[in-house]
Structures are given as C-alpha cells and as structure tokens.
Write a structure and sequence with these properties.
The protein is an alpha+beta fold. The protein is built from seven helices and five strands, in the order ααααααβββββα. The protein has helices spanning 3-30, 37-52, 63-79, 85-96, 101-104, 111-128, 196-199; strands at residues 130-137, 145-148, 151-164, 167-179, 185-192. Helix 4 (85-96) crosses helix 6.
C-alpha cells in the first residue's frame, strides 16, 4: 500500500470515528444522559436569577404578573432543578411567597408536605421525560376583578404546554388571587378548566 493510499485510509477512518462520536454525543444529550455545557450554563443562570430575586422589594404588581412569575418558577423547578435538593428547596421557598396565608395554612400545604410533593413530581417528570415546554397567561387588561371575602379578588387564566417525549399536552388552569393587607396579590387557589369561555381569555391580547 502506497503512502498516498495510507493517508486516504487514515483520513477516512478519522472522519468515521468523528462521525460516530457526534452520533453518540447526540444520543446522550437527547436521552438526557448528558447536557451540553451551554444549556447547563443557561439553566444555572435562570435558577440563580430566580433564587436571588428579592420578592419583598420587587413583587409583581398585578395578578396576571404574579401568575406569570409563578409559572416561570415552576418551569424552572421541574425542568432545571430536579435532582438538586438545595435549588429545589430555594425555588419552592420563593414560590410559597406567592401564596395567600389561607392557602399556606390549608391541609396538606405545610412546607414539609409541599416539598415532598414537589420532589415526587420531579421524579415523575424525569421518569416520563416530561418538561414544561411553555405557558401563556391572560393579559392583565382582561382580568375580571370582584370582591372576595371583603378583599379585592381576581381570576386569572393560564395555559401550560407540557412535552413528554413526542407527546404534547395542553392544560388550562384558572387561578384565584386576592390582595393581602399590604396590597400584594397572592394566589388563593387554582383549578383546571375546560370551559371555552375561560380559555377564550387567553386569546385576548
């Protein structure tokens, strides 16, 4: 075999090896067994931003903004913080600041019970390779307000798209918010809905 032929053979072998490495890396990333450094950095950045956010001095001013930020935290806790107990606890502590005192004092809503439930759901998300793909929240300009137990109340619609492998599911949830004694909007509760009149609010931009 001549020198020229050997060079061609070695070049072809190198190309094949490189191609195999690319395919293997793609498989590991797609299967969730390996994350690219870029995505990891972005994930950590989002987690840190939300952990460091001072909700005492920069709390959302409208009920729609409260629900929107609530979903941003939830997307982070299920998509990025799973498996990291410290970050999960930190994010959950922030999420609980959106809740009305009445909700926090309700049955099954203690810190320990909520943390246990979140960690259980994180494992389920990971097992099923499920992620919160995106979410949309009703514009504040269309939010209906009403008296709620002597305080100002509001209902806010949201739609959440989850991805599970190639399957996508849309869930609509209706949030009830109430102003506390400091004038801040807190989440009193929420429920899933399929009511077309409720869902229509998401189309009003």
């Amino acid at each position: 075999m001549g020198k020229g032929t050997k060079k061609i053979v070695f070049s072809l072998v190198g190309i094949i090896v490189a191609a195999v490495c690319v395919v293997v890396l793609y498989y590991l990333i797609s299967e969730g067994k390996l994350e690219s450094s870029g995505n990891t950095a972005a994930d950590e950045s989002e987690v840190q931003k939300l952990l460091e956010k001072d909700l005492d001095t920069s709390y959302p001013e409208t009920p729609a903004e409260v629900v929107k930020l609530y979903w941003r935290y939830n997307k982070c806790i299920y998509n990025k913080a799973a498996g990291n107990e410290k970050n999960t606890k930190g994010l959950l502590k922030q999420i609980r600041k959106f809740y009305d005192t009445e909700l926090l004092e309700g049955e099954g809503n203690s810190w320990e019970e909520m943390l246990k439930q979140v960690q259980k759901e994180q494992k389920e998300y990971k097992k099923k390779k499920r992620t919160i793909s995106t979410y949309v929240v009703q514009p504040n300009s269309t939010v209906p307000y009403a008296d709620l137990d002597g305080k100002e109340g509001a209902t806010v619609m949201s739609g959440v798209l989850t991805k599970e492998k190639s399957k996508r599911s849309q869930v609509y949830e209706k949030f009830v918010c109430r102003k506390d004694q400091d004038g801040k909007w807190r989440i009193l509760g929420w429920k899933q809905t399929k009511d077309a009149n409720d869902i229509a609010y998401l189309g009003d931009k």
